[in-house]
Amino acid sequence: MPQSPVLRAAYRARAAAADLAPLPRAAKDDVLLAIADALEVRTREIVEANAEDVAKAEEAGTSEAIIDRLTLTPERVRAIAADVRDVVRLPDPVGEVVRGSTLPNGLELRQVRVPLGVVGIIYEGRPNVTVDAAALCLKSGNAVLLRGSSSAYKSNVALVTVLRDAVGGAGLPADAVQLVPGESRESALELMRARGQVDVLIPRGGAGLIRTVVEQSTVPVIETGTGNCHVYVDEHADVDLAVDLLVNSKAQRPSVCNAAETVLVHQAVADAFLPRALRALKEAGVTVHGDEAWAKAGAAAGVEVVPVTMDDWDTEYLSYDIAAGVVPSLDYAVQHIRTWSSGHTEAIVTRDTAAARRFVAHVDSAAVMVNASTRFTDGAEFGFGAEIGISTQKLHARGPMGLPELTSTKYVVTGDGHLKGGPIP
Amino acid sequence: MPQSPVLRAAYRARAAAADLAPLPRAAKDDVLLAIADALEVRTREIVEANAEDVAKAEEAGTSEAIIDRLTLTPERVRAIAADVRDVVRLPDPVGEVVRGSTLPNGLELRQVRVPLGVVGIIYEGRPNVTVDAAALCLKSGNAVLLRGSSSAYKSNVALVTVLRDAVGGAGLPADAVQLVPGESRESALELMRARGQVDVLIPRGGAGLIRTVVEQSTVPVIETGTGNCHVYVDEHADVDLAVDLLVNSKAQRPSVCNAAETVLVHQAVADAFLPRALRALKEAGVTVHGDEAWAKAGAAAGVEVVPVTMDDWDTEYLSYDIAAGVVPSLDYAVQHIRTWSSGHTEAIVTRDTAAARRFVAHVDSAAVMVNASTRFTDGAEFGFGAEIGISTQKLHARGPMGLPELTSTKYVVTGDGHLKGGPIP
């Protein structure tokens, strides 16, 4: 057994993962139902523990938005339990045969989905992530190491206690769900260096957290979440539709990663589009950070336009702000997007099939929308049922990550005593 | 433009990758055919450059096996060109629709294969890897940064010159294929830290090289190659078949990663199996490093058995040696394998379907063989045509990696002006 508490937790998680991997769906669904029931039965102890975290955050003068994300009410605990029951209804990815064939020598080859093993989640002060992540990991046969924010420590301890009791009560190893011991930065670093013990780390939170994990981790990481998303209004766009789509992409819920942060407009359609877009954005409460063309249109329309800077092109506002430029061509828009995008979601508005094909082919992001709002990049919208995050990297998973993205595969090869270089048996 | 030569190369590779990504198959196949032709036409300059590397290696007293791997003859260059033509015949993974559906709101969702972008290969003194890796990367629409061994530097310069001339001659950016500038350790380290510029690093070589890349790299890495493979002879094994399968797994070509390194035998079949296995292994030139049961059987059969140590269980011999133990049960064998295996390939020999199912379910390796030699874990044997390596990690790719494993995916979503939360258009 290793000395450090974090490595000991990882070691126990590995042992639990070995027990979880071969479980059939029914056994995993039973555990999830037991968890949902236990959350409801033990709501009071969860809410009481959470109240201590909230009181501490209020004393520390934490902002209202962050306290809101931290707070658990009986209604919210019920909603979390309902989310767990939704995971029960999702198909089990484990055991799916991804490809298979009979080889020329008669060997039967099958590539089968298997759990990843031990999944580490590093996240910030949202206690609902504790349960969501555990439910998705258990359903996909993985053990999970949860490393939440110290601001939610008491809430997480209470939630993980309920989870572990339910897992243990169902006859499975409680160590399939563990809170990483210690609230210190060192314990997070230890988790990031536990290569060989932890199969993947998924950071969920702000850009700073994700950068730290990517730089420090020797465990493979899946980057999630940063969304500097673009809407490009093509010269062949329907202007009305483009205005609606821009406002929806930006303002329907600006605080999330799939909200638009930049709009680029083909110069051929600028005269028609800019005045109407400015009025509609103003009505939606959005401040435009625009280039000269936007500034001029703003002056003419009586709408204030803040001068755009290089920093604006690089910014994920997550607020009622948008960077705005006019471009001479679709290719110029693509080049701008390739330069500044975080690779999450970009949309084109056009009636021209050739323009749509060219945009889709040349933009290199997790999701490309043609005449649809950027806000649709989402596991639930895509029909995946639940998501553990939205990957903005290219390896293993890209875009919304559902249950299949929490699996690996294994080749199973069956023969009759087949020898390499030998006769076919 | 960045200051460092390595980062400048990565920057140019990114630009080239943007041009390669949307290319149709025909354009990529034409480049590969031009490369194959150029390799044959310019064989002389390649072999001459290689002769300088070989002379230097001979002066340095390099072992014959390593010099053999380094050496290029006109025949070997022709074989390399033939391998490139084989890649032409493989289907293009780019553009494959991996999944797709029409969402309830009418949005059309497609998940499409796209190139990874810039692939870095760090490898040792085999100049054929230079061309193999470049061909596979180009076919899958990726730019490639090649970082070979300094012992093959002149050969690699000559080969990459031929490759770049052929790529440029076909009207594509020559920077799609680049040798990483500099032979120093620092240049390799810079490549490993070029996260954001390089999409994935694939080390090909010995365990030391792979460990360094895994530990130093901030670029995502795919671990390849280490194979501490096991053969388990079950109590329900056909003894004749088990002996043949063990000898084939161990001795058919001991220097490769899918050769067996340990045999575990169920005690119920040990009396029947051990004497015959010992004689067959001796005949094949294999030294057995055995536990007490094997030692006793060796003494009785007049075959020398070296006492096995903990280190032996952990060793990828790549030679005519095998570690050997007798185990009380299938579960004990599985536990041994989970403890010591590198996660490459394990085989069970049994006539019992329940034992086969249990072994397959509980062994956590890239490939599990039932009554087949471990030697079959191979891209060519699996029908993938060519392989860039055999991944022993769980993220992104596991087992033999063909062209699809050199791709990512992108979601393309097409609508008629769909707004989140809005009416269906």
TrEMBL record, chains A, B:
One of its GO terms (biological process) is L-proline biosynthetic process. Its main location: cytoplasm. Its EC number is 1.2.1.41. Keywords: Amino-acid biosynthesis, Cytoplasm, NADP, Oxidoreductase, Proline biosynthesis. It catalyses: L-glutamate 5-semialdehyde + phosphate + NADP(+) = L-glutamyl 5-phosphate + NADPH + H(+). It is found in: Cytoplasm. InterPro entries: Ald_DH/histidinol_DH, Ald_DH_C, Ald_DH_N, Aldehyde_DH_dom, G-glutamylP_reductase_CS, Glu-5-SA_DH, GPR_dom. Pathway: Amino-acid biosynthesis; L-proline biosynthesis; L-glutamate 5-semialdehyde from L-glutamate: step 2/2. CDD domains: ALDH_F18-19_ProA-GPR. GO terms for molecular function: glutamate-5-semialdehyde dehydrogenase activity; NADP binding. GO terms for cellular component: cytoplasm. Residues 6-286 form the Aldehyde dehydrogenase domain. Belongs to the gamma-glutamyl phosphate reductase family. Catalyzes the NADPH-dependent reduction of L-glutamate 5-phosphate into L-glutamate 5-semialdehyde and phosphate. The product spontaneously undergoes cyclization to form 1-pyrroline-5-carboxylate. This is Gamma-glutamyl phosphate reductase. It comes from Streptomyces coryli.
